[in-house]
Specification:
The complex is a heterodimer of chains A (233) and B (110).
Chain A: E1 14-21, H1 24-39, E2 43-49, H2 55-66, E3 72-78, H3 83-90, E4 95-99, H4 108-115, E5 125-129, E6 146-152, H5 159-162, H6 164-168, E7 172-176, H7 188-198, E8 203-206, H8 215-229
Parallel strand pairs in A: 2-5, 2-6, 3-4, 3-5, 6-7, 7-8
Chain B: H1 3-18, E1 23-31, H2 38-48, E2 58-64, E3 67-70, E4 76-77, E5 94-98, E6 102-109
Parallel strand pairs in B: 1-2
Antiparallel strand pairs in B: 1-6, 3-4, 3-5
The chains are: A alpha/beta (233), B alpha+beta (110).
The complex binds zinc ion (ZN).
Chain lengths: 233, 110
C-alpha cells in the first residue's frame, strides 16, 4: 500500500484479456454428463418451472403415460426435503433426491453425483425435476438432451416477457392447467407471441393434468424424440 | 440465490488468469438476458475472495441491454418488458440479436 507522503507511484496496472464464459467450468462437467448419458444410451430431460406450475403433476402423469414404453429414472432437485422423490419411488421408479442446500438451481456437479447413484444400465429416459424457479436454472447446463419449461395458465400470460432468459434456454414448452382458461384472463396469442420471438419454432404442448387433455400428444412426442436419440433397452 | 455459485466461478477464472499477481479489478460483461444481481455478487465476493490475491479486487459490471432486430424493417431496438414487437413497424418478425453475454472479459492486475 502507498503511505501518505508524495512520491511517484511505481504501481503499474496491466489489463489481462480473459474472455471466458462465467459458467464454463459447469458447462465442461455438463458435457461430461452428456457423454455419459450418450454412452449409456439414455435420453435426458431437465424440467424447469416456477413453483406451483405443476412440475410434479406433469412428471407423474408423464411417467404414467410412458409406462411400458421407456424405462425411466428420476432425479429430484429440491432446496430441501424429499416428498417428490418418495412419490416417484412409490410410482415404481428409481429416484434420487438432490438437495441443493438452499441454492435455487441444480448444477452439473449435482447432476454428476446423482447420475453415479442411478442404475444407468437399466434406463432409457432420465427425467430431472429442477428446483422451482424461473430465473436461473436455464443458465446452468446439466448435460440433458432437452430443457423443458412448464408454464401454467394461472401464472399469467406475461411470463415470457418477464423471464426471457428462461424462455430462450428451452427446447420444449408445456402450458399446463388449460382447463381453467375459461375462468382467468390469459391471452394465449400474447403469450405465444413472446415465446415465438424468443424461441422460434419451439415445440409447445398445451395440456391439463386434471382432465388429461393434451397429455398423450406430449407423451407421444417425447417418446419419439427419445427414440430418435436412443435405442430402448 | 444463484449468485454464490456464479461468484465462485468468477473467482476461479480470475485467479487462474491472474497467475500469482494481485488483482485490482475484474471486468464483467453481463447481458440483460443473463440475470445476476451486482450487489449480491459483490457480497459473496467479499467473503470467498478473502485471503486470495483477488481480495481487494473491484468488480466492474458492464451491462449489455437486450437487443432485438426486426426482420421486416431491419430496425434494431431494446425490447420492453410488456411487448417484444418492433416499435418502428409493429411487426412480430423480430429476433434476439444481443444481450446473452455472461463472461469475464478481462482483469486488471498489478
Ligand atoms: Zn420493424
Amino acid at each position: 500500500m502507498c503511505d501518505g507522503h508524495n512520491h511517484t507511484h511505481s504501481h503499474t496496472t496491466t489489463r489481462v484479456p480473459v474472455a471466458e464464459q462465467i459458467l464454463s467450468a459447469n458447462d465442461r462437467i455438463a458435457q461430461r454428463n452428456h457423454s455419459l448419458l450418450h454412452q449409456k444410451n439414455i435420453y435426458g430431460i431437465n424440467i424447469m418451472a416456477s413453483p406451483g406450475a405443476g412440475k410434479t403433476s406433469v412428471l407423474l402423469k408423464t411417467l404414467e403415460a410412458l409406462q411400458g414404453r421407456l424405462k425411466i429414472g428420476v432425479i429430484e432437485g429440491d432446496p430441501a426435503g424429499s416428498i417428490d422423490t418418495e412419490r416417484a419411488i412409490k410410482a415404481g421408479m428409481p429416484a434420487i433426491q438432490v438437495n441443493t442446500g438452499g441454492e435455487c438451481h441444480m448444477d452439473a456437479v449435482m447432476m454428476e453425483d446423482a447420475l453415479s447413484q442411478l442404475p444407468l444400465d437399466d434406463l432409457d429416459l432420465l427425467v430431472v425435476e429442477n428446483v422451482g424457479n424461473l430465473i436461473c436454472p436455464a443458465n446452468f447446463r446439466l448435460g440433458t438432451h432437452l430443457n423443458l419449461v412448464i408454464a401454467s395458465i394461472p401464472e399469467g400470460d406475461d411470463k415470457p416477457y418477464k423471464y426471457p432468459g428462461m424462455y430462450m434456454g428451452m427446447q420444449a414448452l408445456i402450458v399446463n392447467k388449460i382447463d381453467i382458461l375459461p375462468y382467468v384472463p390469459f391471452d394465449m396469442d400474447y403469450f405465444q407471441q413472446g415465446v415465438e420471438i424468443l424461441n422460434p419454432g419451439i415445440a409447445t404442448f398445451p395440456l391439463s393434468c386434471r382432465t388429461g387433455e393434451g397429455l398423450d400428444a406430449w407423451a407421444d412426442w417425447l417418446v419419439e424424440k427419445a427414440r430418435a436419440e436412443i435405442t430402448p433397452k | 440465490m444463484h449468485e454464490l455459485s456464479v461468484t465462485q466461478s468468477i473467482l476461479d477464472i480470475v485467479l487462474q488468469h491472474a497467475k500469482e499477481r494481485k488483482v485490482q479489478q475484474v471486468n464483467l460483461v453481463i447481458g440483460q438476458f443473463s440475470s445476476i444481481v451486482d450487489d449480491s455478487v459483490q457480497f459473496y465476493w467479499d467473503i470467498i475472495a478473502k485471503e486470495t490475491l483477488a481480495a481487494e479486487a473491484k468488480l466492474h459490471f458492464e451491462r449489455i441491454p437486450g437487443e432485438m432486430t426486426c426482420s421486416s424493417c431491419n430496425h434494431v431496438f431494446h425490447p420492453g418488458s410488456e411487448t417484444f414487437l418492433c416499435p418502428a413497424c409493429e411487426s412480430n418478425a423480430v429476433r434476439v440479436s444481443g444481450g446473452r453475454e455472461f463472461q469475464v472479459d478481462s482483469i486488471d492486475v498489478e
